[in-house]
Specification:
Length: about 70
């Protein structure tokens, strides 16, 4: 029987100034989050997190309603 292998820990690729400029420009043009993520070769989650940290509003980011 084959043993499951441990997954390699991924090292986050640092955001470059060019990445941030591209993120800002595409968000300003109203491009969806998933399309921006593909262009930057990053995950949609990483893209949303960076945009949030920079105070950039993204299109296509669903806001979950909280119970309460």
């Amino acid at each position: 029987m084959r043993r499951p292998t441990a997954k390699k820990a991924r090292k986050a690729r640092p955001w470059t100034k060019e990445d941030i400029l591209t993120l800002n420009a595409l968000a300003r043009d109203g491009i969806k989050t998933t399309a921006i993520a593909r262009k930057l070769k990053r995950t949609p989650t990483a893209t949303r997190q960076k945009a949030s940290a920079l105070g950039v509003k993204l299109v296509g980011t669903s806001q979950r309603k909280r119970k309460g």
